[in-house]
Amino acid sequence: MLEQCRHDFCRSCLVEPCESAIKNQDCFPIHCAQKDCRASLLLTDLRSLFSGEKLEELFRASLAAFVAGSGGVYRFFPSPDCPSVYRVIESGAPFVCDACYAETCTLCHLEYHPFLSCEKYWEFKDDPDSSLKEWCTGKENVKKCPVCGFTIEKMDGCNHIECRCGKHVCLVCLEFFGSADDCGGHLRSVHLAII
């Protein structure tokens, strides 16, 4: 007998719609099967039908159906295997999960990123060197090694630098050499100065 409406059913007639709801995640809330009765099955009804593991499976399916039907108002926490749900808010305030203690941005749904807009953080996620590239733009004293692509900044001194890859680079034309002497010779003969 169901707790809310007091209608009587055999066990299999109550288990079948619950099993279907677990599979399809779209039959929630689960209602009494009596014609014209819209009473929902209560927790006490479900506990009398299922063991702990199956009941947990039903709860997870019900939560998934709730999140899916929320129209984007609620989302699952993005950490793998984390069961938490949070409310999406326009401010992008952090949500700290009580289960895994991680933080997420409630606007873009990535790791929380204080001091960066969601757009800047997306850009950084797509290209971790984007902030370095932005910083380098328009700076005459900043170049990329023609061999390994490492960013080189000339602070002072001559136009020769030894990159971390071991090549000697002319900072005027970005030609590279195997030794400091070869690079120095190039600077004197081609550019007529080492500074």
UniProtKB/TrEMBL annotation:
Coiled coil stretches, renumbered: none
Q: Matching PROSITE patterns, A to Z? A: TRIAD, ZINC_FINGER_C2H2_1
This protein's UniProt keywords? Metal-binding, Repeat, Transferase, Ubl conjugation pathway, Zinc, Zinc-finger
Is Zinc-finger there in the keyword field?
A: yes
Q: Name one GO molecular function term.
A: transferase activity
The record, for Gene3D superfamilies, names:
1.20.120.1750, Zinc/RING finger domain, C3HC4 (zinc finger)
CDD domains associated with the record: BRcat_RBR
Tell me the protein's name.
RING-type domain-containing protein
Domain RING-type per the UniProt entry, residue ranges? 1-190
Q: Which pathway does it take part in? A: Protein modification; protein ubiquitination
Q: Which domain of life is it from?
A: Eukaryota
One Pfam family cited in the UniProt record for this chain: IBR_1
